[in-house]
Every structure is written in structure tokens, then in C-alpha cells.
Design goal:
By secondary structure, this protein is an alpha+beta fold. The protein has eleven helices and 14 strands. Bound molecules: flavin-adenine dinucleotide.
Amino acid sequence: MGGLDEQGRSARYVAGGTDLAVQLAGNAAGGQPEALVDVSGIPELLRLERAPGGALSIGAAVRLETLARSADLPACLSQGARAIGSPQIRALGTLGGNLCNASPCGDTLAPVIALGGRLVLASVEGRREVPAEEFFTGPKATVLRPGELLVEVDFGPAALAGRSAFRMIGQREGQAISQVNVAVWLLAEGGRMAEVRAAAGSVAPTPVRLAAAEKLLRGQAWSQGLGREAGQAAAEEVRPIDDVRAPAAYRRLLTAALLREALAEACEGVQ
Ligand SMILES: Cc1cc2nc3c(=O)[nH]c(=O)nc-3n(C[C@H](O)[C@H](O)[C@H](O)COP(=O)(O)OP(=O)(O)OC[C@H]3O[C@@H](n4cnc5c(N)ncnc54)[C@H](O)[C@@H]3O)c2cc1C
């Protein structure tokens, strides 16, 4: 993620600094950079725009607090942002920082994947777009090239036209890192889930699509029984590990339960 500034010094981007400051203090940022490049005031990164056709663009430096408070964004994204840290952390932390930090438990990662987000990256070599689910390559690792900047995350009109929900569980109620988080997005037609995307975090080295669960759900009408089946499929397809936050077996149970709950919320009132 690092790069060189124009004098050839090693440099890192910083937005809210809520991840980077902790890593620099603990010497866990892949070496101490000689320069920090503050991207938090770049106007293009602060845009939050809805196009007339319903497409949505969110600049990388948009604060988590803004996402958490917005009533007119996809529900799972606002709920994911709301789950992060404390009001102080959300006031500083940004969407781009959460995504580029690429922690498998980051709370906006599964929502952005479930919503079909596309990440717009820029460098001196030009711009490119990467689907959110291809952005993450491992714990704290992404496809970002040295010096490349995340400019914004774009969503097609379906993201806002659909219904979505996010669920997470941590070790306590407030300011807790997700033991598992799940986001679902769906388009309902004639009482059925015509399209559905689900993603989970903290269950593999990167956030993952729950493809087996999606396959079961697509074209079906919601029922608690279907939710249990999809949850079971999701629990079997994730690859969690045992760590200080939770054992793998518990994470599988959580994946099933959180997917069921998120689906129930997203399907509420579908006829
Ligand atoms: C007490 C505490 C509690 C927390 N709780 C949670 C939680 O519950 N859930 C959760 O998901 N996270 C949590 N976090 C982590 C953190 O707050 C979030 O990940 C936040 O969104 C990071 O955003 P930032 O702007 O502060 O990132 P920064 O720290 O500024 O940057 C993070 C990384 O992204 C890079 N970067 C930033 N912006 C860009 C860009 N535009 N282009 C390219 N690279 C970029 C930086 O170089 C750095 O490597 C917590 C952190 C703390 C300190």
C-alpha cells in the first residue's frame, strides 16, 4: 500500500488515521514511512453523490459517521458503519480507510461486497475499477499497487433499489470487533428473491461471498425454514480459524444465525 512521495521518500496515505496511527505506534505498518500523505481533505474523495438514475458514488474519505447517519443509503452500509468503534472513531474513520486496511473483520467490507460495489483506484498510471470482492487478497492485503489511491466506491442503481441488512456479533455490546459479520442485499420481485448477494467477514482471510447460500435463496420466497437452510449452507462454506476472538466452530454457528437474521430483516414486508 505504501509508495514514494515526489522526493522519493517512502510514504503512506492517511485518512482518519484510526488504523494507521495504531499500526505506526506498534511498528506494525510494514516499517515507518518517511512521509504521510493526508487524503482526508481531497474534494473528490469527499463526494457522496446519487445520480438521477439511482447510481451511488461514495468518496473514499467520507467519514463513517456520515454513512452511519444517512437514512438514504443502502441499509447494510449504514448499519455496518454504525457497528464500527465509538462515536469518536466514526467521526475520524473513513470508508476508504476501512476498505484499504483490509482487516477481514472490517465492518463495511461485507456490505460493500453484498451491494456489488466497484472500487475506483487511481495512480500516476491512470484509473482502474476493481469489483469489491476482488479487491481483498488476504488479511490486510489488497490489489492496491504502490502509490495507488482509492478514490471512491461506485454502486449501480440496484444497490439502492434493493433491500439489505447487516448483522455483526462481537464479544460485548459496544466498541467490539466483529467475531463474524454478515451483509445481505436482495431484489424482491413477486414475493421472491429475484437477485440476492450475501457476504461475510471474519470467517476467512478475506471477506467472502456466501455463494452456496445465495444459490439456495435465488428465486425463492422467504421463510424461516429457507433461512435455516441458507444459514446451514453458509456455515459449511466459510473457512474460519480459531483465534483470540472466537473458535472456528462458533464462527460457523454465528454465520448461520447472522445470515438468517439479516435475511429476515431484508425480507420483512416482501409480498
Ligand atoms: C478503538 C478502535 C476501534 C475500532 N473498531 C472498529 C470496528 O468495530 N470495526 C471496524 O471495521 N474497524 C474498527 N476500527 C478500525 C478503524 O477505525 C476503521 O478501519 C476505519 O474505517 C479506518 O479508517 P481511517 O480513515 O481511520 O483509516 P487510516 O488509518 O487513515 O488508514 C487505514 C489504511 O488505509 C490506507 N488508506 C486510507 N485511505 C486510503 C485511500 N483513499 N487510498 C489508499 N489507501 C488508503 C492507509 O494508508 C492505511 O494503510 C477501530 C479502530 C480503533 C482505534
